[in-house]
Amino acid sequence: MIKTILHIGDLFLAHSKYRQLIDGIMDLMLETVLCDNEKILVTSNWEKVKC
Asked: Which DSSP helix (H) or strand (E) runs through 29?
């Protein structure tokens, strides 16, 4: 449902070189939506963006 709402197919077509990053973001969104805890800890690793 999230992928449908966000038109993920169009996003992949427009930004194909960022597919792995987009997949990771989608996984985090799904995990957040499905979480039944009162709190969620979100952390990140900083990495350089290659354009």
From this structure: helix 19-34
- Quote the CA–CA distance of 34 and 37 in Å, as a whole number: 9
Question: Residue 9 corresponds to which tokens in the numbers above?
Answer: 């197919």
What residue segments make up the domains of the chain, in order of their start? 2-34
Q: What are 8-35's pLDDT values in tens digits?
A: 888 888 988 999 998 888 888 888 888 8
Residues 6+ apart with CB under 8 A from 22: 8, 11, 12, 15
- What average pLDDT score do residues 34-42 get? 77
Q: How far is CA 36 from CA 7, 22, 25, 27, in A?
A: 26, 24, 19, 16
